Structure prediction request, 330 residues.
Amino acid sequence: MKYCVIGAGGTGGCIAAYMIRAGKDVTVIARGSHLEQIQKHGILLETEKGTETIAPVSAYEMSEYIRMCGTASAEALQEEAAKASAEKRLERPDVIFVCVKGYSLEGVIPFIREVSKSDTIVIPVLNLYGTGERLQKELPGLLVTDGCIYVAAQIKKPGTVWMNGTIFRVVFGVRDPEELRKELFEIAEDLRQSGIEAVLSENIRRDALQKFSYVSPMAAAGLCYHANAERFQVTGDERDTFVALVGEIDRLAVAMGIEFQMDIVKNNLAILDALSPEASTSMQRDIEAGKPSEIDGLIYEVVRLSGQYGIKLPMYEKMAEALKEHHEII
Prediction:
């Protein structure tokens, strides 16, 4: 299967690096100096086991990838057939992993429409809850799953992705059981062969909210205390705040008719404690660097959902009000 990974940051960079190393057919979409370094030298992957160069990597900017795939119009296809001997064309992807930040999502929708085939499968693995359902409305002719990822990673410098800890799990699945296709099992197997723990979920609505129940509280608490993981890995106000926020997501899940099949607080503390002490959330890093952030989808959306489902989440409401005074939604 031919894969396209949109975004080569911590999420997309790790997925692409692992799959390319395993010999899978993967093309990466990136931009700027990060793209330039990947095109020249591949992806430099730093993990607890050491540093490894994954090369060569097929990597393009969006417009270049569209040009290399060609256009779907009949007239252009005839014209491109005549040029086939002069320039190699890329085949359209069977699978697209969407690994951008939530605020960049709208910008990739036209690209997905342009390069997809009628049977292309789109798998978003963003931090935000409900992304697949929102994308499906924009891409009605394609199968768009929901998905999430467990990995602590970030771009260390152009061309270099730093991966913290050992957790690397991709969870994805269809919202409607009737949409289940055999290709989804093949994707899961390709991920496993690449050294990535893959879960084809039978209840992606629950499993995606379970991931959100970690990343949202950690983002909120990390930003509130301006602290890395080490401050939350020991007893104190920081850890207590994280636990309280996770508990409120658990209450929201009940209101939404979603039942976690585990002690979500215990599970999320185990994830937190497995991180490297210096780990932080991407939202926290983005805000501290003055960049656009996912604060709306990770924090303010929780308050909106609590109103929609008629419950009170006092810790989230208090934190959202405090953050709004200092952080503009960009």
